[in-house]
Each structure stands twice: as C-alpha cells, then as structure tokens.
Protein 1
Amino acid sequence: MPLALLALAVSAFGIGTTEFVMMGLLPNVADDLGTSVPTAGYLVSAYAIGVVLGAPLLTGLGSRVPRKRMLLLLMALFTVGNLASALAPDFGWLIAGRFLAGLPHGAFFGVGAVVATRLVSEGRQARAVATMFLGLTVANIVGVPAATLLGQHLGWRATFLVVAAIGLAAMAALARLVPRIPVEAHQDVRRELRALGNRQVILGLLTAVFGFAGVFAVYSYLSAMTTKAMGFGESSVTLVLALFGIGMTLGALAAGPLTDRALRPTLYGSLGALAVVLVVFPFTVHVQWAALVMVVLLGGVGFMTTTPLQMLVMNKAKDAPTLASASNHSAFNLANAGGAWLGGVAIAAGWGWTSPALVGAVLAVAVTAGYLDRDPSPKSRVVAGGPRTAPREPKATSPSGPHSGTHSSPSGV
C-alpha cells in the first residue's frame, strides 16, 4: 500500500478522535463552563450538524480544486476548528468551534476516498478506502481513551490543543506523501449534483442512514449498558469502549478485501450479520464474558458495512463520485443522530437498557435498497476514476512509486 494512504489514515485518526472524545468530556466541560450535562450534549449535535452541512457544501465549492490541495484546505479548517474549541471563552464560542471542526469531516472523507482509489491498482480500491478508515477505528481504541484521560487530568482544553497538533501533523503528512492528482477536465459541481440525484445513489445513502443507525442505537448507550446491564463498574467503561473500537478495526480490515471481491454480498451479508448480533445481544448481556464478545462482534459487523457503502455510492455516482462519497458521511451522521434518538425513546419507554439493540436490529433489517439495487448494464461498473469512455488522467506518482489513474469498479458491482 502507498505511503500516501498513511497520511490519509493519520488525518482520519485526528477526525475520529475529535468526533467521539466529546462524549467522555461532557461532565468536565459542563462543570468548567457552568452548564448542565444535557446542555453540554449540544456540543455533540453541533459537530454532527457541521458534518451534515459541510459535506455537500464544501465538496461543491471545491469541485474544481485539485484533490491534494483540497485535502490540505479541509485539514486546515479542521485544525482551526479544534484550536477555536480549545480557546473558546464561553459555551457559545465552544458550540461554534465544534461546528467549525465538523464542517470538513464529510468532505475530507469524500475526497480522501476518491484519492485512495487513485493510489492503487484495479481490484484494490476498497482495501485502499478501508486503510484510510483504519485511522478512524484506531482513534476509538487509542485516541479517544487517551484524549479523554488527558482532558480529565489537564482540562478539556488540553484535549483540543492536542487534536489541533494532530491536524498540523496530518497536514505535513498530506503535503509530503500524497501525490498531485488534478481534477478531471469534465468534473464540475453540476455533474456532481446530477450524480447525487441518481436513484441508486439515493438508495445507497438511505442504506447508510437506516443500516448504520442500528449500530449507533447501541453505541450511544454502551457506557450506561456497561454499568446498568452488564454489571461492570464505571472503571470498566473505557475497556468496553476500547473493545468496541477493536471490533471496528477488525471489521475495517476484513471489509476491504471482501468488498474488492464482491461488493453487494459483503454489504448485505454484513447488514444481515449486524441484525443477528443485535438480536442476540440482549440475551447475552448479563453474562459478562459473553457480553464483551458481543461488543467486539457488534463493532466488527457494524463497521464492516462502511467500506462497501462508501464504494456503493461511489460506483453508482459513476463519473462524479466525490459529492456522493462525501454525502455518505452526512448519512452516517444522520444515522448517528437517528439511532441515538430511537434508542433513547426505547429506554424512556421503559423497555430496558438493552432495548436499543432490538431497535437497531429492526433498523438493520428494514433496509430495502438491496431489492431495488439492480443495474446490470456495463455502464454501472465504474468507480472514482470516471466512466470507461472518459479520458484518463495522467498517472500520479508518489514517494512510494507509480499509481494508476482511473479504475473500473471492484467485482460484484
């Protein structure tokens, strides 16, 4: 794998850390700024809103910007947002900082996924995308626990200063390792918008919303389940969250080669496995060792859906995949919000702390896009490089060697 993928993974590590660390810092922020924990929870929402709005907006504005420069600009905005969060004088400014930090999230992963497919040969595109996502999963194993611990001992502002430093390191890695990949001559925002309106792209995005909402229905309340259902002490919460992160990493590692081999079977197989795990989870949660195994499995099968979903919308968008790829992360954040809300409704209704798992199972099996995802024509067999008939870009080079330009899609699409 090219070293440029390492730069993308480091960037994803920083983004993943700042996205999820706020959950662990809410009490500290609330105490320091004189507000309640539920009110501080708006900081999570502010970041998610930034992702949802920023993905299509920034991708559209940057449709003519060369890929490498766009990645650097997005990471610079991410760094500024985290620095603004660290220096925020009051709660309102912190809300603004979190919103600003979230704006480049979806656009970065959208552009980064397209760049990743350009760095490898045909048949390895999904593995390249999965390698970038590994930074996000490793953040849940190392970055989030370490940043939470740092914030608890040195103050929450120190956490965001460190994340800003990670952003600067990521910019240096992107500048050094990512080759110049120019924008295609035929690329413009109107073409991207037309691709986003494709029914198959919309169905892929809906699959992300409903399918991945099942994961967040449980993950949002995993800390409470650890103490109230599994019987562990509060000191074990970090371990349980780390196990979930390990599962995510294993799922990402498996998803790459499986998606390259057969996209749709990987996607719907992982969604089916997710539904099974969510159904079984409430029946094993009171046996501690079994509950820990299920946490790993949940993270694994849940995150195994992300790479095929990313490749699905990129393929369906054909020769204008960037906006669709970025919008996929808006869909993931809608899944985050929707899954957390539905899980909370189930708990508030008195159905028990494990009821979000059953809600998640319903969401996973409710995805019907697979029945409508039927486009056997050869024109559909395309990924980030553009249609087969489109002119090829000049081959890009990087410190790790030559890489191919446009590619056709993985088999099974």
Note: The chain has a mean pLDDT of 80.
Protein 2
Amino acid sequence: MSAQTAQPTSSTRAAQVPAVLVLEDGRLFRGRAYGATGQTFGEAVFSTGMTGYQETLTDPSYHRQVVVMTAPHIGNTGVNDEDPESGRIWVSGYVVRDPARKPSNWRSRRSLDEELAAQGVVGISGVDTRALTRHLRERGAMRVGIFSGNALPDEGTMLAEVRQAPEMSGADLSAEVATKEAYVVPAIGAKRFTVAAVDLGIKGMTPRRMAERGIEVHVLPATATVEDVYAVAPDGVFFSNGPGDPATADHPVSVMRAVLDRGTPLFGICFGNQILGRALGFGTYKLKYGHRGINQPVQDRTTGKVEVTAHNHGFAVDAPLDRVSDTPYGRAEVSHICLNDQVVEGLRLLDKPAFSVQYHPEAAAGPHDAAYLFDRFVTLMEGQRA
C-alpha cells in the first residue's frame, strides 16, 4: 500500500497544512505537510546520509518504505535532472526535520518539496527525526502512516489503518519495480564483455559502472528465464539490488542456480547477495532496523581492507562466519562483514567464479571505496575467457 489520495501542494501552502505520522505501536509525531498532501503507508526506516537524498528517493530498493532522514537539513541542493537512479521516486513517504527554505545549487532545477508534490509523494516535516530514529532503533522497523490535510482522521482511525497495511516480511516486490522490457546499456569505449543483468530493482549507476569498464550490459526483467539470460551470449551474469523479502524470490533463485550450474561468472549486489545465499542453501532473516545510509564500515575478509560503504537492506543472509561451508556448488565463504554488528555483507564461491556483496559498490551518492568489486567481476570474466 503506497500513497493514496495524494494531492500536489505548493511549498508555501504545505508549510501551513497539519500532518501526523503514526507508527504501528501507537507512537505519534505531529508536523507539517511536505510534498503532496493525503495519506500514505509503508515500512518506517531511517537513512543516515547527509547527502544523496535524490538517489535515495529514486532507488527502487526503497519501494514501499517511508524514509526518515536523520540529517536535520534536507533539500538544500534542490532537485536536478542528472542524479536520479531511476525514472521516478519510489519511496512511499518522506520524513524530514528542517526542509530547506530555498535550494541553492548550480544544477538545481526545482525544490525537493515541489518534486515530491509533483510525483504525489506524501511527506511530513517539522518532526523530531532524532527521537523518531531512536525509537526505531529500539523497537525496530515497523509499519507507519503519514496523514496530512485539514480534515485528519482521529488517532484511533489512523492507527487502525496503519495496522491494516501489509508488512515487509513476505513481500514479493522486485517485479513491481523492475523493467518490463529488456534494454541495452552500451560499453563506453571498446567493448570487452557482454553481461546479462537481471533487474530486481537496479539503480541506473550500476550498469554505467560496468559500461565504464568496457561491458555491454543487457538489462533483463525480473521475470527473465534462463533462456532469456543466455540468449544474449553473456560473458557474465549480474543480479541487482531490489526491494522485498528474499524468502519470496523463488524465480530469481532458480535462475541463479542454473547460472551456477553452467559456471558462468556471476556477481550480485544487495538483493542479489541474498539470492546467492539462498541459491547456496543458506537462509535469510529480517534485521531489526536494517542498514541504510552511506557510512557503513565493512571489512573485505579476503584482503583485510575496511571500506566505508553505502547500504540499503532490511534482510540479511544467515551464513556461518567462522568456517568455509560446503554447498551444492562447491565451497563457499563469507567474504565481507559489517563491523558494526557482524552481519554478512558478502559471499564468494571458492570452486566457481561467483561472488556477491550486500551493499552498493556503485555508491551514487556516497563513498567509492568498493568500486574495485566491478574490477573483480571483470577479472572473473577474463579468467573464464582465458
């Protein structure tokens, strides 16, 4: 369930319109409308990024989530036409403390609240986002509703509607955000490889990072079959990020197992990491409040290097950290871990050319510490070709 009865609202008028945020445990925050007015529902999550809000809003992985920004000032650089990660805003709702009164950036084309209103995204401002974030850290991610307008329902009605909204656990969402038709991102410069990328909610920067390395990327729908994947004669196969519960992703898991059977070099990120975990026989589970933002410390256990990374995931792979595991596709190990909580952040096979990470190495916007992972994928394809 996403935004309903949303109405575009001018920033001047929105500042005067009352709004209420209601969590499923009954906690309530009052503020002012930001963006569109109306009502919306989703899973309340928080993002720690001080910049990059435009990339967050347009990341398909945030589908059906209401994002709380922990940085107090949001909207300072407005909205441009170059930075979106997809063709639309995907968040169900947006929560900020102090929205910018006037954007200031040479690339800005319009204000953030104008963009939210134009796309029908219901938001709320003037909220103590620090208190809200602490509440979510203690109680965990939960369902939430934002209600705005001059005729708000009573508190009991709002709470009842929030509790009727669907939960993220058990949600199968990748097909809702993925491309419906295959398309090609051409290699930049001389073409070196062809990659079939299964779109489970792919960000625009991801195929671009591959194209920069001479890879022609064929982006395929989430419903793509094994035959569709190999129809492009790929040198490697990529599984993207995306929203929802990986426990529901039976089709991508079956496709990935077929790729593993053939021994084609394979790379997955975020949702793709969870798909690889399931394909290898590991379970997945929901994190209490997830990892989101651009400042998460991760250690590459193969090199010992610590990276500052960009994350957006509410689920994780349940794989042993202390040993190599035997799987139907040979030996596998946890290659990366989050240093905050020891959550699995990457997997690699030791007997086949396949690996994955839970975070976002394309890092737009964010740190570029993990860009080497695209080079690692190229190395696998070079080795296979040799």
Note: The radius of gyration is 21 Å.
